[in-house]
Structure of S-layer glycoprotein N-glycosyltransferase AglJ:
Amino acid sequence: MNNADVCILIPTLNEAATIGELIKDFKKEGFSNIFVIDGNSRDGTARIAEAEGAKVVLQTGRGKGQAMIQAFELIESPYVIMVDGDGTYLAREAPSLLEPILEGRADHVIGNRLEKYSPGAFTKLNLVGNRLINILFDIAYSVQLRDILSGYRAFTLESIRELELNKTGFEIETEVSVECVLKKQRVEEVPITYLPRSKQGATKLNPVKDGIKIGSTIYRLAKVHNPMFYFGIIGFVFILAGMLTGTYVVVEWFSDITHVLLSVLTTLFIIFGLQMFIFGMLSDLIVTLHRQTVSLIQEKNRQNK
Ligand SMILES: Nc1nc2c(ncn2[C@@H]2O[C@H](COP(=O)(O)OP(=O)(O)OP(=O)(O)O)[C@@H](O)[C@H]2O)c(=O)[nH]1
Ligand SMILES: [Mg+2]
């Protein structure tokens, strides 16, 4: 493998403070095939990147996800390293991300930030949010990944093109991780350094708003993979509501007060909740049978090759 076969893909939105240095660092490591997909930055990011010798393309839509999806269509190199442009990742760690792919062990490598991050790299809220999101992901997909939201990854062009990606914002990393699981790609994690964002460049991420969007993406995408989880949560919420109203009705009944309407509501809550569990079980059965059929077809296709 030649380093020219590796495309360093950097999405940027107003990262003038760090983009020049980042490109220089990758060049020092011997990577000169650098592709910046810029979100029409107003601080001269594109100009700086071009002056440093990167290929710069302006994204046609909005959001990090749209930029990534556009870039995946334009890249021609067989290997891709994706890295944020805010100077929080180290170029010299790129070879360790590539290693599992070049050795044929993995299709997709995630740089795990959560093992050796610098003080101040994560705010408390971001750290808690990250952990919660990874736990939710593990429960929904039964895959132990530590850092699905990492912005430093390596993959083959072939494997990324296989994924069905639609998310335009910061949910893109979640969607990539989910799709890797659904497409049965071999995903590996490698510990990396994570540095604090430079003071000059503002974050584009809103931890609460984007955190909720990311959480709901994991949940909604789980419908086809783990329907018991998807419907089970709805069922649980309704049964819990039914238990609360039911307890209130019974307690009041002991004091000779009867709540007819609330009793009806309680029954509806519990029946609806139980129905959700049954939906979950049936969907689970369908998904399992479907999976068996698909793997049988795949096996037959392999035998025919
Ligand atoms: N092209 C493009 N890039 C974007 C857009 N939004 C963010 N980015 C880039 O995506 C990368 C990640 O964004 P950040 O704001 O650093 O998000 P984060 O790393 O999750 O959050 P912080 O911890 O605050 O840095 C950076 O290089 C941004 O410049 C966008 O709309 N378009
Ligand atoms: Mg960042």
About this structure: Residues 84, 86, 88, 151, 197 surround magnesium ion (ligand 2) (CB under 6 Å). The chain has two domains: 3-221, 227-304.
